[in-house]
Amino acid sequence: MKLLFRSLALLILLIGFYQLYAVAERVTSALWSLYKFYGSNGEGISIGSSMALITYVVSICLLVALATIYKKSDDRIALLLSKVSAFTLLFGLILLTALLVSPLAHFYPR
Fold first, then answer.
1. Could you say which of 4, 8, 29, 73 would form a disulfide bridge with 78 (CB–CB 3.0 to 4.6 Å)?
2. At residue 108, what are phi and psi to the nearest 5 degrees?
3. Which 3 state secondary structure label does DSSP give 105?
4. pLDDT of 32-81, one tens digit each?
5. What's 75's DSSP letter?
6. Coil, strand, or helix at residue 106?
7. pLDDT at 88 over 90
8. Rounded to whole angstroms, how far apart are CA atoms 8 and 30?
9. What was the pLDDT predicted at 53?
10. Quick check: 16 and 62 in contact, CB under 8 A?
């Protein structure tokens, strides 16, 4: 069971880092667009509503899985991996939320 919890927490950590990379790329793209088109009628960047919705749903499901690992495991490595994974996912969600409520991004349906 330790191996299962460790592997699952490590997989979720990798997914969290990928999510953080993708969201940080969109934020830097939005900031670059603001810098490049400052003073003109630039609207910022476009973010697909389905991408944002899927990101939120998958992240919340992964956080629930991490909470389960944290409650049921007694392995220190699995606990550490689940904590780091949860912080990574939460930081990515906070960054995405900040981008979506800012005027730097707008939704488009897909």
1. 73
2. -140, 140
3. strand
4. 887 776 656 666 788 888 989 999 999 999 999 999 999 999 899 999 99
5. -
6. strand
7. yes
8. 33
9. 93
10. yes
Q: Which residues, other chains included, contact 48 with Cβ-Cβ below 8 Å and sequence gap of 6+?
A: 107, 108, 109, 110
- Residues 7 and 82 sit within 8 Å (Cβ to Cβ): no
How far apart, in whole angstroms, are the C-alpha atoms of residue 100 and residue 95?
Answer: 9
The whole-angstrom separation of Cα 15 and Cα 23 is 12
Which residues have C-beta within 8 Å of that of residue 87, sequence separation ≥ 6? Answer: none
3-state secondary structure of 108: strand
Q: Rounded distance, CA 77 to CA 18, Å?
A: 21
Task: Provide CB contacts within 8 A for 51, sequence distance 6+.
Answer: 110
The first and second tokens of residue 109, run together, are 């349906």
Pairwise CA distance, residues 37 & 58, whole Å: 33
Asked if residues 23 and 94 have their Cβ atoms less than 8 Å apart, the reply is no
Give the CA angle between residues 83, 70, 63 to the nearest 5°.
65
